[in-house]
Each structure stands twice: as structure tokens, then as C-alpha cells.
Amino acid sequence: MAEVTTRTLAVNGVKSFLRESGRVDSKEAVVFVHGNPGSGEDFDGLLPLVGDFSRAVVPDMPGYGQADRPRGFDYTVEGYADHLDGLISQLGIERVHLALHDFGGAWGVEWASRNPTRVKSLTLFNVGVVPGYTWHKFAKVWRTPLLGELFQATATRGAFRVALQADNPKPFPRAFVDRMYDYQDWGMKRAVLALYRATDDLSTMTQRWGSILRPYHIPTLVLWGDSDKYLPVRFASVQKDYFDAEVHVIPNAGHWPMIDEPELVRDLVIPFLRKHAGAGG
């Protein structure tokens, strides 16, 4: 496995913590983007393996992980896409293989819709174009003024663990759940509320991106846990309507298939990325 290095990079004064592997001078790279309430560490099992054959970059996005959480950041899908664009530009990456999870899918595909000729492949973890999508139970709480603040203020480690485990088909590793909770300071909680309240209609938004990207026939690997309570598995096959998609439904997995079934996910992701990103230079 390739060495993983870390550094901090700022876009308009907002710092993201970066994990990198592979050739740091390559103009082509796999860019992993986490979602909510995750961090770049969600991809720790894949980063050094991808670094064996391609440049790979994993940022913590603003509000999450070890990134900054400024009040003045634009906590919208467009604002996150702008930040991602700044990171990619500063890293000198011209040809991009996006690997996206959860809200990272919205941020990354918004970026892709602005830069379709630069996107050489997509790897979608339980995310994509979601026509007819309606918000899950936690999103509805976060989007509700006062109720969202109360929910965030009263969440304890134990309650977080119970809620997360209750929605997953198998127990999460204790360290995974604790890590996510440890990052949930008030800055992150404030960012979550702002993001969800600024995002009204994922269904229409994602269909717009899909219509822009469809003519480009982007090679896409879709991995979707069959028991996802937040983004239902019925959306997995929909991706074939918009991308040149290879779809795999992961049995007995929830919203984080890379955590639930790390070996199976590895055995699907690495050959796909080796094929499409392995000759990058």
C-alpha cells in the first residue's frame, strides 16, 4: 500500500485537512468527498490502495472532520462545490475521478456539472440522481427551526450511537461511531443545520445535474447498501439513466457500505479505479 501523507490547504481562508496518496505531481487524481456526518477518514480503507496506481486526495470539507467551521462560510451545495473547486485548482488536478458519498455526492456532482469534460469517472457510494426523493427523519428535524437546535444541543454520545446503530443492518465498529461523535462540536452542528436548511429540493437539483452530465457518458461505479434508511436502494438502478453505470447493490449494508462491507467494496472499487485512473499522469 502507498504511503498516506497529510497537510492543510485553505480556500478563501477556510482550511481543509487533506489526506493524500500516490504521485503528488500528477495532473489526474481520484478525489474522495465525504458526506454528513462523516469526514475524510471514512475512506481510510481505500486511500492507500488507490495510491498504489493513482494520485488520490481526500479532504475534510468545511464544518466536518478537522476542517474549519467558520460562521461566514457558504454552507450551501454551491458553496461546497466552490470550495471543492478551489482545492482541486490549488492541487493542480486537471482530470478528476470523483468518489462521492452522501452530501459529498451533491457537492461533487454540482462541481461535475460545471466541469463535465474534466470528470473521467464517478464512484458513487449510496448517492446520485434521486428523482422523487424526500428527506429522511433526521433531515426533517435539522431543517426545522428551534427543533433542530434543540436536537443538536441535547445529543449525547450514547444517544448518537443508539440512533446510528438502530438504522443500520449490522453493528458499526465502536471506533467509527466514536470518531464521528468526537467531531461534532457546535461548529459542525451549526454547519449541518445551515446546509440542510439551504437545500430544499434534492430531487430537482440532482435531476438537473443528471441532464447536464448524461451526454458525456461518464463511466460510473454505483455501490449501494440494500438497507440504507436515508437514501433508499431503489435509486441505485436510476443511475443507469444518467451515467454509463455499473451498479452493485451491497447485501446487508446500510448507508456506509465501505464500513459495513469493506472487503467487498474494496474488491469492486479498486479494479474500477485501476481501469479508469491507473494510467493517470
| Count of runs of 4 or more consecutive helical residues | 11
Proportion of beta-strand residues: 15-25%
The multimeric state of the shown protein is single chain
Nearest-integer average pLDDT: 97
Distance between the termini: 19 Å
Derived from helix and strand composition plus strand pairing, the structural class reads alpha/beta
Number of strands: 8
Molecular shape: globular
* SSE succession: EEEHEHEHEHHHHHHEEHH
Binned, the helix content reads: 25-40%
Largest sheet: 8 strands, mixed
Enumerate the spans where pLDDT stays under 50 for 5 or more consecutive residues: none
Biggest sheet, spatial arrangement of strands:
1-2-4-3-5-6-7-8
Rg over alpha carbons: 17 Å
Summarize the topology.
Blueprint lengths: L3 E8 L2 E8 L6 E6 L13 H4 L4 E5 L17 H14 L4 E7 L1 H12 L4 E7 L11 H6 L4 H8 L2 H10 L7 H9 L3 H13 L3 H12 L5 E7 L18 E7 L6 H4 L1 H16 L4
Question: How would you describe this protein?
Answer:
With 281 residues, the chain is of the alpha/beta class. It has 11 helices and 8 strands. It has an 8-stranded mixed β-sheet with strand order 1-2-4-3-5-6-7-8, with helices on both faces.
Structural features:
single chain, eight-stranded mixed β-sheet, 11 helices, 281 residues, alpha/beta, globular
